[in-house]
Structures are given as structure tokens and as C-alpha cells.
Amino acid sequence: MADEWKEPINETEQERLAREGRLAEAEEARVERKSWHLLEKTLLAGVQEQRRSRRWGIFFKLLTFVYLFGLLALFSPFMDMDKAASRSGNHTALIEVRGVIADQESASADNLVKSLREAFKDAKTKAVVLRINSPGGSPVQAGYVYDEIRRLRAEHPDIKLYAVIADLGASGAYYIASAADEIYADKASLVGSIGVTAAGYGFVGTMDKLGVERRTYTAGEHKAFLDPFSPEKPEERAFWQGVLNNTHQQFIAMVKQGRGDRLKDKEHPELFSGLVWSGEQAKALGLIDGLGSASYVAREIVGEKDLVDYTVQESPFDRFSKRVGASVAEHLALWMGFQGPQLR
Fold it and tell me: For residues 305 and 293, what is the distance between their CA atoms, to the nearest angstrom?
């Protein structure tokens, strides 16, 4: 056993054996020396692999720790402590209406109504400012918010609500703004677009060129009247136009109810044509009451310069979950060539 683990003959000793004619011993020494080198490399490779595995293990443990710490910070109730502290004194409540007004969006009726109720019920709220930057969207969602604003104003007559339009307050966004006590905007803001649109595509000519036949089976004479792969019928087009006209009249009625005599619609019937105006033009037309920002309104009109944000802040997980579901429905509707009425 001792001979099996003795130190291998080095290269100098191997050369000496060869010179002395002991070739068999020299060859044996060479093979043994080669085996030891191979064993040494194998052991070193194993040690390096262990070190590499330890480093990766430490990296993934740190990554997991950072991830869990981030989740804890994101969902911790302590994240709301600063907001609660800022509401301890008198303030002007701020609610953002940003982006498309639609279900599952940040400017959905659910989010805006929740924010409005929170702001109005706070005893320290002296006024509410809706800061709007939106191209419009669903007439249903806008109508929900409009009705809730009117209800809360009647329930809390001592708390005024001001709409402040930033870059854009068009269509459904203006629908919501018209429910406010007063509307402000910048002189270059885009205001108005009191109209309704619905869009789709027609692929009948393309289908004919490709030699593809459309086969549709329905129960109900007009069930497939929005099918983009079938020819459009005049009576169905007239029907759909009637739906849009009815929605438009509802929009106009709500704007007139909200703005009252301030609206110069008798002198300017084009107000309801879907056009937009700059803030400066909108003031002359009675679409808004003055020029100014949210901070200007809080400071100069309300008299409480401290703005406290009541906008619903969804977690990243909630936003991701909602967008996945909404994206499927949206892409299906687009594939079918149908888009419902939009206040734009």
C-alpha cells in the first residue's frame, strides 16, 4: 500500500533512469507521473466547481432576499404613513384623471369614484381638484363619474370641486369636467371634442381578391351587423348611426346641465360638433371658467395651497393582472373589427 501512494518520480529522475538503460522503469515512471498530473487536474477542477457553485448560491440567495424585501416594502401598510400624515391638516384634495377613461384602466370609474368618496369624506378636505389629462374614452365610465360628482356635490355643498385641464381635456374627459363647480385650463390646453365615434374595418374586398368565402351563421336578422368580413347594409349603417346620435345627445345634455348658462352654445352651435379649442378660446366659449393650474386653484381660489393626492394607486401586480385580462378582450375586439362608441 505504501508503494501505491509514494510521490511520483520527477522529470529529472526519469531522465537519469533512461540514461542508465533502465527503460522499463523510466516508462513506468512517465506513466505514473502522467496519471498524477491527471488526478491533480481533476481535483483542482472539482475545487473550482465547488467555489463557483458557492458563489452562484450566494448570488441567488441575495437575489431572493432583495425580491422578498421589495415585496414587503411594496405591500407594507407603513407605505401609507406619509400620506396619512399629510392629511392631518386642512388641505385641497387632488385626484388625477390621466389617460384613456375605460374599465381596467387607471382612469376607470371604479378608481375615480373611490378617490372622490375618500376625498369628500375627509373632514380636513376644503376642496377637491380633478387634474385632467385625457383624450376621453368610454361614455359609460365617464357617465358613472359624472353622476357620482353630482351626487357628492349635493351631499357636501360646502366642498367645491374644480376640474383643471392640463394638456388635454377632450370628449369623455370633458364630460367628467363639466360636472365640476368650475373648470380651469392652461391657455394652450386642448378642450372640447364633444362628440362620439365608433370605428372598425371592412375586409370584404380583400376577401373577394383572395377568393375566400365568408360563412356566418346567426339567430337574429342583424346579429352580425358589425361583422367586418360581410358587406355593410344601408339599414344597419343607419341604425348604428342612430345609436351614436343618441349617445351624442346624452353627452350634450350632460354638458349643458353641468355648465348651464355659462356655455355659449346658442351663439356657437359648433361647440357640439366634435371640434377642440385652446384654453384661451374655450374660456371665451364658456367651456371653462378661467386659466390656471392645479396649484393655482388650490392657492388662489380655494385658499389651501397644500395639495394631498387621493388618486388610487394600484400595485404593480394589480396593474399586470388587469392588463392581461383586458388585453385579451381588446385584441379579440380589434380582430373582429369592432370598437364600441367612444367619446372622442
Answer: 12
